[in-house]
Amino acid sequence: MKRTVFTGMMVAIATASAAEFVPFATFMEQTRTATAVDHMLRATSKVKSPAAFEEMRRHILDMYQGVQVSHSFVLGSSYFDCVPTDQQPTARILGVEAAEMPPQSLIAAKSASKPSAKRADAFGNSVGCEEKTIPMQRLSLEELTRFTSLGEYFDKAPGGATEPASDPSSGHKYAYMEQNVDNIGGTSTLNTWTPEVNTAWGEVMSLAQEWYVGGRGAATQTAEVGWQVQPDYWQTQDSVLFIYWTANHYDQKNYPGSKGGGCYNMKCAAFYQVSNETYLGASVASSVYGDAQYELSAEFYLYKGNWWLAINDTWVGYYPGSIYHGGQLTKNAQMIQFGTETYATNGYYPGAGSSDWANKEWTYAAYQRDIAYFSTAGDAISATLTAQQPSPACYTTDGPYVSDSGSVFFYAGGPGGSGC
User: Which end of the chain is more exposed for a tag (fewer CB within 10 A), N or C?
Assistant: First the structure.
């Protein structure tokens, strides 16, 4: 089998589900005039009360207050609006100003390719944003009302979230690697897959990611990046690029969204994006079982007080240190973790990674490679990982290994099912 690897994050452009393109101004007017009765009667709605609906509507209006959008387009099932960099929510709501970008030399280069051809969506709109604007995935009531409350929408998965080292009875299942080490970030390259998540069976999500963790208990803080399939949240069966953070151990009850509980991507004011070429929340291409492998490289680096994110050799933006409220991640992380996570509500779990066992290895199993962390002095150091398999009946790990070139890598995943 030819070892074909596509290292660019390929973004899918699919036929939009809507018959008519909805401009940003129209979307905002529809949000301003929306009523609880209309949305609560929809088949997909789970919002628990008119008050919960109004909180969702208010959140959207606050996120876009005063924003001027001149261009929008559709990627897959999502609208993206080109928002002026200084008008994005983190700038307006939190008062965060543009920070100094780290040198390109701090990116652990993976030679990732980047799409270069001019593209158009199904409505003929050019795909991409001009300089000094950033592509922000549109935040809609149709999306939010699939959840009972705004706090549940902010959660990493309905019912709460944890990082791997937390309570195994939480409903989150893992196969992962970890190392306890003081660090200011790290990097890996993940091959991308699209495991089936059947929401009719109570399956909720499946992902592969990196965690950078500091603090303990209620003071646990993270910066996270990877790919995820969560149909009810992203409104697609595709795998999408995501980031997530928490300053208070995912506590959405007492510290929702920007106040510390955390959120995905730019769904609350937290992440400050600078790249006009990276589409957080967009679908990514899936590796082919036994054939071509698609990858994305991801890195976090704490630089001058901000957790900078790089995707495929491009600085995308950063989590400002202020969102961690003086906690551990304002100084450094204390643990690195890499692996898969799933969540389900009825005890039957989706596949993780490629949905096959880790020992199937190359082209058949999900992997992460070129795994390193950055010491508190800023040196890139190959990770010394320990395998963790809290759900071996459904998911396994294989490795870690060191390649002839010195790359640290492992495989992780499995078919899911019951008895996890």
Answer: N
